[in-house]
Structure formats: structure tokens, C-alpha cells
Design a protein that fits this description.
12 helices; 72% helix; globular; mainly alpha
């Protein structure tokens, strides 16, 4: 059982990131069956990216760090989802039938719609990160876990338009997979937030909190607020994607899922920036 889970994690790591893992992926069906584990890879991405951002914040102005961290997120994921965001933007801006819109999404050229949506999402993401230096790691973990869970959610409830990329993911994922993925997400986020808080309180790393920022977690009383924000925004993001995709494309495509990853991450990070400024968390 342990070896099977390790193999599953290697498969989805190879699919979602540029992290070198020695495994061959035979087809999308193999990945789709393990999709409920996507949040674990989001957790891993959040930790790696958070630690890099933590280092940058000590030497580089915050606003620049926000976009450097965003650049690393794009790099470590191979711009896989970013491509979907641009294509999705082009698709929803084109007038015509769903078939015409899907054809435009498959065009290698990026149009005005894709550029506009990409600019908005990426700008808000980078700016949000630059304001989250106090709790950078846990916020990045939550945003990445949320981005991955949103894809599982949409694949569990959405309708496929039978595109090669998305079809197996929507066919093989049901309500039970969304629930498994949700509980996995809650465990990953809660345990990470609490662990960071404990490490910060006992100062196990013997660091000066006035100099090194970004390692703060959440107390028992604060974690429910974080989970509520996570749950509401991922559900809202997924629901809107299902509605918009049905209207424009008659269902979900692979580009829709890629765009959902980028948009959900942005929404979560933007909300964290707002609640921090309002001192809610």
C-alpha cells in the first residue's frame, strides 16, 4: 500500500511540476485516477516556493519579491496552467459557437482576451504575494492546495466536452473523490498552519522574528477562519468556472482547468492580503 501511494504521488508530481521524478506516465487515465491527491502536490509547491520567497524577502524589496515568487511558481509548474489561462481568456472573448471558441483556444497564438486576462490574474497574484511576507509560507501552501482542489472539484461535478486533455479527468472523478480531496486539503492546511505556529512560539530555529519573516502560522482559534476562506473561495471559483464554461464551451476543457488553477490561486492570495490589511487574521 505504501509503495502504491508513493508511485501515485510520483505520477502526479511528474504531471503537475518540473520536479524530476523517475517515472513514466502512460496515459491521462492513470493520472486522472489519482487526481484527488492533487492538493498534496500543491502543498509541496507551496512549501518550496514559500521557502524561496522567505529568502528573497530578506534582501529584496517586497513588490519585486512578489513577482519573483510568481515567476518561480510558473517555472516549477512548467507554465502548464498559465497556457490554459491565456487560451481560456481568448475563448471567452470570441463571438460565435462553442466549437469556434474551442478552436480559438487550441490556436497557438495568444489574442487580446488571453493577454488581458493573463495580465490581470498575474498582476494581482504578484502584488498579493508582496504583501504577505509575515505569513508567506502558510498562505502559499493554502493557495496552492486550493488551486489544485478546485480542479478536483470541477472535474467531480462538471461536464466534459470530450476534449483529449480533460475527458478522462471528468469521467473518472465523482463526488467521493471531491470529498477525499477536500479532507486531504483541510488536513494539509490545518497541520501546516498549526506546526508553523508551534515552531514560531518555541523558536526552534533560534531566529530573530523581527528580521526573518514569513514563518508565522495560525493558532487553534484562527485556523477555522482560514479554512472557511479556503472552502468558500475554492467552491465559488469552481462553481463560476462550471457556469462560464457551460455558457461558452458547453462544458469543461483542459484549458478551463488550467485557468481555474491560476484564478483560484489569485483569489485566495488576494483575499489573504485583504484580511491581513483588515487585521481579521
Amino acid at each position: 500500500m505504501k509503495l502504491i501511494i508513493i508511485k501515485d504521488l510520483k505520477i502526479i508530481t511528474a504531471f503537475l511540476t518540473r520536479i524530476p521524478v523517475k517515472i513514466d506516465i502512460k496515459d491521462y487515465n492513470e493520472i486522472a485516477r489519482k487526481m484527488w491527491l492533487f492538493p498534496f502536490i500543491g502543498w509541496l509547491i507551496g512549501i518550496i516556493t514559500g521557502l524561496i520567497g522567505l529568502l528573497f524577502f530578506q534582501f529584496i524589496p517586497n513588490l519585486i519579491v512578489g513577482f519573483l515568487v510568481l515567476g518561480f511558481l510558473i517555472y516549477i509548474t512548467g507554465a502548464h496552467h498559465l497556457d490554459g489561462l491565456f487560451d481560456f481568456g481568448d475563448g471567452i472573448m470570441v463571438h460565435g459557437s462553442p466549437e469556434k471558441k474551442i478552436k480559438v483556444m487550441h490556436d497557438v497564438a495568444i489574442g487580446a482576451g488571453g493577454m488581458a486576462l493573463g495580465f490581470i490574474v498575474l498582476s494581482l497574484t504578484g502584488i498579493s504575494i508582496s504583501f504577505l511576507n509575515q505569513r508567506l509560507i502558510i498562505y502559499l501552501i493554502t493557495a496552492e492546495v486550493g488551486a489544485k482542489f478546485a480542479m478536483v472539484l470541477v472535474c467531480s461535478f462538471g461536464k466534459s466536452v470530450q476534449t483529449k486533455m480533460a475527458e478522462p479527468f471528468l469521467r473518472l472523478n465523482k463526488f467521493k473523490h471531491a470529498m477525499l480531496s477536500y479532507f486531504l486539503s483541510i488536513i494539509l492546511i490545518s497541520s501546516s498552519a498549526l506546526l508553523l505556529n508551534i515552531l514560531n512560539e518555541i523558536n526552534v530555529l533560534q531566529i530573530n522574528p523581527d528580521i526573518i519573516t514569513g514563518l508565522e502560522g495560525f493558532s487553534y482559534s484562527e485556523i477555522p477562519i482560514l479554512i472557511i476562506i479556503f472552502s468558500v473561495l475554492t467552491s465559488l471559483s469552481g462553481l463560476l468556472m462550471i457556469i462560464i464554461s457551460k455558457k461558452h464551451f458547453n462544458g469543461i476543457t483542459g484549458d478551463c482547468l488550467g485557468a481555474l488553477n491560476e484564478i483560484t490561486r489569485m483569489l485566495l492570495l488576494l483575499s489573504f492580503m485583504l484580511v491581513e490589511n483588515l487585521s481579521i487574521l
